[in-house]
Amino acid sequence: MTKKAIEILQKNEDGFFLMIEGGRIDHGHHDNHAKLAFHDTVAFDAAVEVALEMLPDNDTLFVVTSDHSHTIRIGGWPGRGESILKGQGVNMGSDGLPFLTLSYANGPSAANNANGSRRNLTGLATDVDVFQQDALVPLKYETHGGEDVAIYAKGPFAHLFHTLHEQHYIPVAIDYAACYRSTAAQHCNKTTAISAAPPAPMNWPSIIRVLVFCLVFILL
Question: How many angstroms separate the CA atoms of 180 and 184, rounded?
């Protein structure tokens, strides 16, 4: 879909804005299906790679970020080379039951715990698509997390994205870079080129393409 969208939008000589969302990542986490979420994270990465191959970064601003995190966590001491979806062979709790490397703070899989005791994972196939990682608090759906999420940028005005930003800063920076509404800046004059922020001066085109990839998940 990313390839086809770019092929269509490239026909516009005035550039374009394209937002690509890995929405199924979010769905996987809400159901505590870590493997399904990871599967779509890989597909999301492939979409970014396609865009980078199809478009030049001298006139295309690529922005990759997320609008929130999830409550998934990494814990325990898995064996070297062991799948992140496993871990019950070496991770043992003080209750004498194994636990996985991945778990959630809340979500539907908490219903698997009965009578105040965790379920016994011994012998379970924890790396199948629909396996639900353990959750602590029972909820119909797992919630979003509250951590800061990453933002990556490449191309013209990528230097505007650095350190920490409030979410509302992102569209303002994109608007400035692409001259959608903020047309007073020098680089918005089609007859004038400006220099980039240091350390590498170069001329920016007055009309640029903007691609925003929204991951809707970050694992910290």
Answer: 11
Size (the chain), residues? 220
Strand order in the sheet with 151-154: 17-21, 209-214, 60-65, 151-154
pLDDT bin (cut points 50, 70, 90) of residue 100 is: very high
Looking at the DSSP assignment, which residues form a beta bridge with residue 19?
Answer: 212
At 25-58, the pLDDT tens digits run 999 999 999 999 999 999 999 999 999 999 988 8
| Average pLDDT over every residue of 117-132 | 93
Reading the block at residue 67, the tokens are 């609008």
Question: In angstroms, rounded to a whole number, what is the distance separating the alpha carbons of residues 137 and 58?
Answer: 48
Distance CA 210, CA 94 (A): 51
Taking the C-alpha atoms of residue 10 and residue 113, their distance in angstroms, rounded to an integer, is 52
Where are the extended beta strands (E) located within the chain?
Answer: 17-21, 60-65, 72-74, 102-107, 135-138, 151-154, 209-214
Cβ burial, residue 218 (10 Å; 0-12/13-18/19+): buried
Let me know how many helices (H) and strands (E) the chain has, helices first: 4, 7
Give the Cβ contact number of residue 20 at 10 Å: 20
Query: The whole model's pTM is what?
Result: 0.83
Distance CA 130, CA 28 (A): 9
The Cα 204–Cα 103 span in angstroms is 46
Q: What percent of the chain has pLDDT over 90?
A: 57
Dump pLDDT digits (tens) for 168-189: 999 999 988 888 887 667 788 7
